[in-house]
Amino acid sequence: MDLNPLYRSLVLGVANQKWLERLVRTHGWRFARRYVAGHTLEEALNVVRELEDEGIHALVDLLGEMVTSEEKAAAFTGEIVRLVQALGTLPYPRWVSVKLTQLGLDLDRELAREHLRRILDAARAVEGVVQVDMEDSPRTDATLWVWRTLREEEGYENVGIVLQSYLKRSPADLRAILHLKPNLRVVKGAYKEPAEVAWQERGKIREQFLELVRTNLAAGGRIATGTHEASLVEEVRAWAEAEGIGRERYEFQFLYGIRRGLKRDLARRGYTVRDYLPYGEDWYPYFSRRLAERPENLLFVLRGMAQG
């Protein structure tokens, strides 16, 4: 029996308790700092520079999700535009990640599309790329609709999308967009999902991860792998080289603060490596998902809190 889905479900369920959120927000920042670049844009830009010194690019994300007012969605949009413009002043690749619920997806998908269009226009002006993150399964259809209308109907080529390999629907979702040769990021998935919609076995999640990667590359698309599993990274790398796929069409993405040795090694060997680099005040939901990924992450925090 694979206990990892049970562990993830337990941690994410407990993380929703308000008393625990207050406790972690009060005492947990020094541990969250391992995974989060900082509270401010300026702190994030400093980390971007540090990563570039190691040959690693950044995919910068202003933390925030599931907003409940048009005013807050507009404010997030403005801050992300400011992020894009700030990246445009640096001599590095300008990549940002957005969650559509921070742009108002739960209020109105057309509102979220309007806000994303504004961000894409700002990114175009600095030759930047915007990666649309994938959230939990009830929002998959709306997320794909926003991405597809902007990519296919309005011609934005600087917008990427994410698919999660634990969702049973993901191969069909990919087949539906293959003709667009998407700039696709494949991840395993970090949300609490029921067995009816998501695979619970590591082996099946891993198998579908490779299927998504190979299918998109074989169809001419571009791939970013979002996994910290060294053997899975190696399988993708070896397969792409055996198939004669140029390195400009695939890259390896990691979460900031994780697998530092592996990412540095890949960068030294000439592969494109990019860190998903989150920052901002709304770090608790992101931090909770990191703790839910591996028991070792939670033990690290608990030991530190126990030691004061």
Can you describe what's shown?
This protein has helices at 4-15, 18-27, 29-32, 41-53, 70-87, 109-125, 140-153, 170-177, 202-218, 230-242, 260-268, 284-293, 295-306; strands at 57-62, 95-98, 129-132, 159-164, 183-187, 222-226, 250-255, 273-279. The chain is built from 13 helices and eight strands. It has one domain (37-282): TIM Barrel (Alpha-Beta Barrel), CATH 3.20.20. The model is unreliable at 300-308 (pLDDT under 50). Helix content is 51%, strand content 14%.
> Rg from C-alpha positions?
18 Å
User: Which CATH class applies here?
Assistant: Alpha Beta
In terms of per-residue confidence, which ranges show pLDDT below 50 for 5 or more consecutive residues?
300-308
CATH topology annotation: TIM Barrel
Q: How many angstroms separate the termini? A: 36 Å
The biggest sheet amounts to: 8 strands, parallel, barrel
| Structural class label | alpha/beta
Helices and strands in order:
Elements: H1 4-15, H2 18-27, H3 29-32, H4 41-53, E1 57-62, H5 70-87, E2 95-98, H6 109-125, E3 129-132, H7 140-153, E4 159-164, H8 170-177, E5 183-187, H9 202-218, E6 222-226, H10 230-242, E7 250-255, H11 260-268, E8 273-279, H12 284-293, H13 295-306
Parallel strand pairs: 1-2, 1-8, 2-3, 3-4, 4-5, 5-6, 6-7, 7-8
Helix pairs in contact: 1-12, 5-6, 6-7, 9-10, 12-13
